[in-house]
């Protein structure tokens, strides 16, 4: 969720110069590791051509987010994120 990613967003606050020094905090590093695990666990290596590819729009904490995936009630995990 956006709230879970807030330590990463905190890095973007401050100096708008892209060359300004940034330091990854332990909290932000932990969030990056959690994101990596979540993406790795949900990754799909192939598309089922019989199922439509859909863009799902969700609004966690009123921040619209798009997910490209496929949905099938017959799958153990019905959402396959592409």
TrEMBL record:
Origin: domain of life: Eukaryota
InterPro entries: DNA/RNA_pol_sf, Rev_trsase/Diguanyl_cyclase, RVT_thumb
Ranges for domain Reverse transcriptase thumb: 1-32
Any one GO MF annotation of this record: RNA-directed DNA polymerase activity
Keyword RNA-binding set for record: no
Keywords assigned: Endonuclease, Hydrolase, Nuclease, Nucleotidyltransferase, RNA-directed DNA polymerase, Transferase
Name of the protein this chain belongs to: POK18 protein
Originating organism: Daphoenositta chrysoptera (varied sittella)
